[in-house]
Amino acid sequence: MPIQSVTSISPQAAHRVSFDARQSLRSQLTSMIAEALAERQLSQVDAARMCDTDQPTLSKILAGRKQNASSEKLLCWLMALGWDVEIRLKRTAGVGKPGVMLDE
């Protein structure tokens, strides 16, 4: 499977995800949700129902206003839209930048 994207995190923040990385991760997850809607030819109303939310909330998040959308919520929505989610954590070997990778 090709890697959709990689977000680097500074070594100083390796134990936690930095604000920029969280924003980037949420942006990537939001793009994947929009892609899932298009692939399944779902309206926002139908997708919102599947995601246990309302259409205005889904619309705001898809439009880029995702400050109130946690990565956890977006991952749950992807699962509701038919994606399998696997989270894998591992220590980095030696010096380097840990990252967040999303496989498609």
Automatic annotation (TrEMBL):
Pfam families: HTH_37 (PF13744)
Domain of life: Bacteria
Gene3D superfamilies: lambda repressor-like DNA-binding domains
SUPFAM superfamilies: lambda repressor-like DNA-binding domains (SSF47413)
Domain HTH cro/C1-type positions: 33-74
Protein name: XRE family transcriptional regulator
Organism: Rhizobium hidalgonense
